[in-house]
Give the backbone structure.
Amino acid sequence: MSTCVYCHARKGKRLCPALDGLICSQCCGEHRVVRITCPADCVYLDANSAYQQKRAGERFAIERRDFYKTLF
């Protein structure tokens, strides 16, 4: 079993090009771009950007609906 190259506690399942080894999904999600310098072509970085944009759109839709309720 190969451990995460970042935390050395959990099993590394994702290939991290920045750290040149396997990283666990928790460390990848928590530290990407913040503490780990991810390259632009990282597949997990692209997937995260799309997910975050979708979440922001959903939150905005809820707030917009509540705002319109207060107007009418």
Summary: The first helix runs from residue 25 to 31.
